[in-house]
Design goal:
By secondary structure, the chain is α/β, with parallel strands linked by helices. Helices cover 41% and strands 20% of the residues. The termini are far apart. The structure holds the ligand CNc1nc2cc3c(=O)[nH]c(N)nc3c(CC[C@H]3O[C@@H](OC)[C@H](OC)[C@@H]3OC)c2[nH]1 and zinc ion (ZN). Zinc ion is lined by residues 302-303, 306, 308, 310-311, 337, 340.
Length: 374
């Protein structure tokens, strides 16, 4: 087995990279889209579905799994891979984002963050060492450091102070998890808000700590898309070329294409799965709402260009009926379709970089998913 953390770039097309990242549970071909499985499941799909649609790597979430069912329980039962019967790579976020976006009554201190569980209000404390220990218990292949995801609109001084805390926490995470300990990788997270000079400052600090990969955090937090794309372009050059780059929480098809063009390798976004459950489907001709009246007696497949189980087996009329009738199968079929769209898009991106055709693929997709469309 290739040593976990080995990152091999096999082709380039402009700043876009075609690479592979070795983990303890398999090699991830990049650019890669990572379905979100926050509570140890990609909502409504089983591991067999995920394999069938070509999933390489899944996301889990420290905050959620720590609160319920508990990381120590999962460790006792053999770790997250065995618990959810997924034998491929898993990346877990540190929970920093959820503490600020989900938990109540949180208190930020130099030593970590105190918060109240969104489930039962019980009080908890996440230190850098604690979030490392939780992810070690889960057995994640890629662990994220504890960081503060600075809210959109934070001023320069707050953002500068916050990135210093994020760096201190990152250092403590690195010390708590020696390189390649039990084959588990550790990624640093660059903050700095929407201030290019603070992004450069955060990147210089984080990339000096010896991580296996680097994430850009603090984006996809409600900012206008042009601001997101601008800060990505100005930040990526500060990330080492020879390690994976992960853009957290991004994104829509147009954001993935812009991210790849800037040199990003890994993406995660709840959009694919969340929109599936509310009937918004991504197709080869743009976004479609499954409950549209025109689908009422339309016997054709949702997307003739899609080879997923939903598109090759059922009609638009049936998918619309399931959604309107609030049938559980609607969740599963819509999710199978949307994830297939995102996984196929990143597969086409990998092939385009190999053949030097990325720019034309991006132009083709930008015509269908315009960068200035919501
Ligand atoms: C949507 N926009 C968005 N911007 C984000 C920015 C940050 C950030 O700066 N730091 C950290 N630590 N996490 C972030 C995250 C959470 C991603 C996780 O949140 C969960 O999806 C919501 C999922 O957990 C399975 C995923 O796991 C990596 C962001 N999400
Ligand atoms: Zn489909």
């Amino acid at each position: 087995m290739t040593t976990p953390g080995t990152f091999t770039i096999t082709a380039r097309d402009g700043a876009a990279r075609r690479a592979s990242l070795a983990t303890a549970h398999g090699v991830v071909q990049t650019p890669a889209f990572m379905p979100v499985g926050t509570q140890g499941t990609v909502k409504s799909l089983c591991p067999r579905d995920l394999r069938e649609i070509g999933t390489q790597i899944l996301l889990g979430n420290t905050y959620h799994l720590y609160l319920r069912p508990g990381d120590e329980l999962i460790a006792r039962l053999g770790g997250l891979h065995r618990f959810m019967a997924w034998d491929g790579p898993i990346l877990t976020d540190s929970g920093g984002f959820q503490v600020f976006s989900l938990a109540g009554l949180r208190r930020l201190t130099p030593d970590g963050v105190e918060f109240a569980s969104h489930i039962d209000g019980s009080r908890h404390f996440f230190s850098p060492e604690k979030v490392v220990s939780i992810q070690q218990n889960l057995g994640s292949d890629i662990m994220m450091v504890l960081d503060e995801c600075v809210p959109y609109g934070a001023d320069f001084d707050y953002t500068k102070k916050s990135l210093a805390l994020t760096t201190a926490w990152a250092q403590r995470c690195r010390e708590a998890h020696p390189p390649l300990h039990r084959g588990q990788l550790l990624f640093g997270i660059v903050q700095g808000g929407f201030y290019p000079e603070l992004r450069a400052e955060s990147a210089a600090q984080i990339t000096s700590l010896g991580f296996d990969g680097h994430a850009l955090g603090g984006v996809s937090v409600g900012e206008p898309r042009p601001e997101m794309h601008a800060i990505i372009h100005s930040s990526v050059p500060h990330l080492p070329d020879n390690k994976p780059r992960y853009l957290m929480g991004v994104g829509a098809p147009q954001d993935i294409l812009a991210g790849v063009a800037a040199g990003i390798d890994m993406f995660d976004c709840v959009l694919a799965t969340r929109n599936a459950r509310n009937g918004t489907l991504f197709t080869s001709t743009g976004k479609v709402n499954v409950k549209k009246a025109a689908f009422r007696d339309d016997d054709s497949p949702l997307d003739p260009a899609c080879s997923c189980y939903a598109c090759r087996t059922f009609s638009r009329a049936y998918l619309r009926h399931l959604y309107i009738a609030k049938e559980l199968l609607s969740y599963r079929l819509n999710t199978i379709h949307n994830l297939t769209f995102f996984l196929s898009l990143t597969k086409r991106i990998r092939e385009a970089i190999e053949t030097g055709g990325f720019a034309s693929l991006k132009a083709e997709m930008d015509a269908i998913y315009p960068p200035d469309a919501p």
